[in-house]
Amino acid sequence: MLSLLLACSSSPEPGVEGPEQPTAVGPVDGDTLVTAIPFDPGSLNPLVAPYALSGVYIGATQLGLVEREVTETGLGWRPALAKSWSWSEDGRSLTYELHPDLVWSDGTPMTTDDLLFTMELIADAAVASNWHSDAEQIERIEVVDADTVTFHFVHAGNKLLLQGTTFREWVPKHVLADADRGTIRGHAYSRQPLASGAWRVDSWTADEKLVLVPNEASSVRPKPRLDRIVTKVVPEYATRLIELQNGAVDLVTNLEVHDLPDLRADYPDIRLIRTEADGMQYLGWNLRKAPFDELAVRTALAQAIDSDKLIQALYEADGELYAQPCTGTIGPNLGGYVADIEPIAHDVQAARAALAAAGFGDDNGDGVLDRGGEAFQFSVLVQNGYPTLESLAVRIQAMLADVGVTMEIQMLEPNRFSQLAREHDFDAILWGFGNNPKIDPYIQWHSEGQYNWMGYADPETDALIERYRAEPDLEKGKLLVQEIQRRVYAAQPAAFLFWEDGVSGVHERFEDVAFNTFTFLFESEAWWVPAEKQKY
Fold first, then answer.
1. Residue 6's pLDDT band (boundaries 50, 70, 90)?
2. For residue 79, what pLDDT is reported?
3. Number of separate domains in the chain
4. How high is the mean pLDDT of the chain?
5. Is residue 473 packed enough to be buried (19+ CB in 10 Å), middle (13-18) or exposed (0-12)?
6. pLDDT tens for residues 277-302?
7. How far apart are CA 231 and CA 214, in angstroms?
8. Of the candidates 116, 148, 176, which is a domain's last residue?
9. For residue 518, which of 163, 53, 28, 9 has the smallest C-alpha distance?
10. How many CB atoms lie within 10 A of CB 509?
11. Is the residue at 80 inside a domain?
């Protein structure tokens, strides 16, 4: 299975824990879902969304031509604003048939002008869209008629990736046409977006609460069963957990593994949902700075870190591990795409010897290595809101100290963390990538990739990535992805730590709950609560 996608009905499904309940009569309307998240989503403008968390709420409120769908073999697509699509015989053109009579939540018709405007913004460097590189693969967009559009690509290639350049959620031209593109990230629309999906924003108090209500204007998605989704911003994990336990909130994601035994034993009304290999963690080096520009140093640091020990300490509960070793950013459940790579072995003595060979010694006897009169000391950026990340940083700090390297931990609020990462203003960064079944190494490891924060730049890797994007044959594409992984791992732009399973808790009164790789609100319009269990 690529990802654990769970439809949680009254009886527990595989991977879902909860009490056995009698079968409900059928879906009914009413009640509220209350969630708690560690930080404010920041912006719901789909072109410049700052966080993966932002995407959860963008996906609930806004639509593009198609939506991502997780399949047994990877990423697929399902209809959204488009009802169907077809490829040209030469693989260079993709034609969409739109649903008729599309409308924004303010009553304004959605037209192909909105699509063209959206794609124009993505292509405009001044906007600095997350998806700017996608526009480079589109030669032109042809409006065939009011309900038909054709994307003509620069070249034929991987159809999955080419279609992925077309699916971003639309923004309304009648609202943003006059917006300053250089400052569009700060436009009021980012917090007051028009809706085209099942939900719309009813109210939003920054850093406190976001409320979604059904979008009555949607002709594409069914009207939600629930009356609203209330999302509370609760920065402290301990508080989020307590509120889940006492029923003040109904859904909390990213539960700490050490809390699972007590939740199972003492809170039978909380259903635990486990998602396999939900994301990977890495300690990324800024390759623009010394000594991280030296492969021998990066390799020695990897040898100093014991990933197996980290997994045992942080991801074990009731004799079961919730993480596995990692050698790259392609999920371990993505079949033929995953390269067979022998991980760098933990070896403290080898790490010390390699650092000595690189010119580091302890000239003053203080236990900290130095070279050229400068101590080997650096800081690592860690985002607040995730206790496991802080614990992980502390344990890595101790492991590096064991080879004479001092790592200072800098805990940051999400917006500051994101800013410094984008600006490459760091020594090291402790973060990760989600398990994305849209297998596109460009964004992470191409020299121009928008999430290549470490500054990894290798002409041969760039060429392999470009060949992969242009390769229409699936099996040949898999081999190229494997070779890309080998080159990246050999270069060690980051210490690849582990893949972790995600665990969420949701109150058992909610039926037909579905999670997928991209969102914990997947098909939330179908979630419902039996009348006798409704709370609000």
1. very low
2. 96
3. 2
4. 92
5. exposed
6. 989 999 999 999 999 999 999 999 99
7. 15
8. 176
9. 53
10. 19
11. yes
Q: 58, 46 in Cβ contact below 8 A?
A: yes
pLDDT at 10: 37
Same domain? For 456 and 314 the reply is yes
Above pLDDT 70, what percent of the chain?
A: 95
For 31-74, the pLDDT digits (tens) are 999 999 999 999 999 999 988 899 999 999 999 999 988 776 66
Instruction: Tell me the C-alpha distance between 427 and 409, whole Å.
Output: 11
Name the burial class of residue 355, with classes exposed (0-12), middle (13-18) and buried (19+) by CB atoms within 10 angstroms of its CB.
buried
Residues 316 and 438 in one domain: yes
- For 315-412, where are the alpha helices, taking DSSP H only? 348-357, 387-401
Position 12 confidence tier, pLDDT thresholds 50, 70, 90: very low
Asked if 169 and 308 sit in the same domain, the reply is: no
Q: pTM score, two decimals? A: 0.86
Residue 188 counted as domain residue: no
Residue 135: which domain range?
64-176
Query: Is the Cβ–Cβ distance between 500 and 352 less than 8 Å?
Result: no
Angle at 74 between CA 70 and CA 80, to 5 degrees: 40
Mean pLDDT calculated for residue range 68-89: 87
Would you state the structure tokens that stand for residue 461, as one six-digit string? Answer: 């890797």
What CATH number is attached to the domain comprising 106? 3.90.76.10
Structure tokens at 245: 């336990």
Residue 491 lies in a domain: yes
Q: Are strands 494-507 and 251-252 parallel, antiparallel or unpaired?
A: antiparallel
Can you say whether the dihedral through the CA atoms of 475, 476, 478, 483 is positive or negative? positive
Averaged pLDDT, 314-324: 95
The helix (H) or strand (E) run that includes residue 137 is: none
- Look at phi and psi of residue 372 and say left if phi exceeds 0, alpha if psi is from -120 to 50, else beta: left
294, 168: one domain: no
- 332 close to 498: Cβ distance less than 8 angstroms: no
CATH number for position 397: 3.10.105.10
- End position of a domain, from candidates 176, 192, 216: 176
pLDDT tens for each residue of 188-231: 999 999 999 999 999 999 999 999 999 999 989 999 999 999 99
**Secondary structure class of 277 (helix, strand, coil):** strand
Structural domain includes residue 169? yes
Distance between CA 375 and CA 378 in Å, rounded? 9
pLDDT surpassing 80 at residue 485: yes
Token look-up 């072995």 returns 345
